[in-house]
What we know:
single chain; 225 residues; alpha+beta; DNA Binding (I), subunit A; 5-stranded mixed β-sheet; disordered N terminus; disordered C terminus
Amino acid sequence: MxxxxxxxxxxxxxxxxxxxxxxxxxxxxxxxxxxxxISTARRAFCLLFVGAAKAVINNGEGFKTxxxxxxxxxxxxxxDGEDTVATVRWILRxxxxxxxxxxxxxxxxxxxxxxxNVYKRDNYTCQYCGKKFSPEFLNIDHIIPRYRGGxxxxxxxxxxxxxxxxxxxxxxxxxAGMKLLKKPRAPLRLSIHQDEVVEFAHPSWKYFIDVxxxxxxxxxxxxxx
Length: 225
C-alpha cells in the first residue's frame, strides 16, 4: 500500500470516534475560488492533512487560507460554539469551506432547456397564479407568444397551470392583464446535485454561492416537445 494511503488511514483512525460530525457538509472550491463540490468533513480533513487543500476562513478583513498545521492552531484558539472533533493529539474545528491546492477544473454551467427542467426551475408552480400543481396540470407558456416572434429560451418560457395558460392564450402579459411572479432566467448547473444541499448549507457559504441559483435539482431527462 502506498505510504500516502497509510497516512490517511492512520489519520482517519484518530478521528473515527466522531463519525456523526465527520458527515458534516463542507463546501469545496477549486484553486480559482469557484464552487466545484460539497464534501464531508471526513474527506475535507484528509485533504487538509495531506496538503491537497486548505481551510478557508473570513477573518473580518477578507478571506484567509490555512494549511493543516495552521488549522490545528486556529482550532485551539477558536473553539467557541463550533463543532469540533477530537483526536488523541488534537481538537479540530470542522472546516466549512476548503480550497483545493491544484485543481482548476469547473463543472459545466449549461442546463438543457426541457419541459421538465422548466417545471423544476419554477418548482412546479404556476408563474401567474402562484399555485403549485402536479405535472399533468402544468404547461409551458411563452411570455412573448411565438407567433409574435417570441423564442423558446429560458428567459421567455415559464411554468403555467392549464387554466392560466388558457386565459393568457396568444396575448402579451399587458393584453391579458397578467403578471409574473418573478423574472425567468436560466438556472445554473453546479456539481452540487444533492437534494438536501439547502438543508445543510452553512452561513459561510453565502460568500461563494448564490443559494437561490441551486435550490432546485435540474437534469437532462427529456427533450423539449
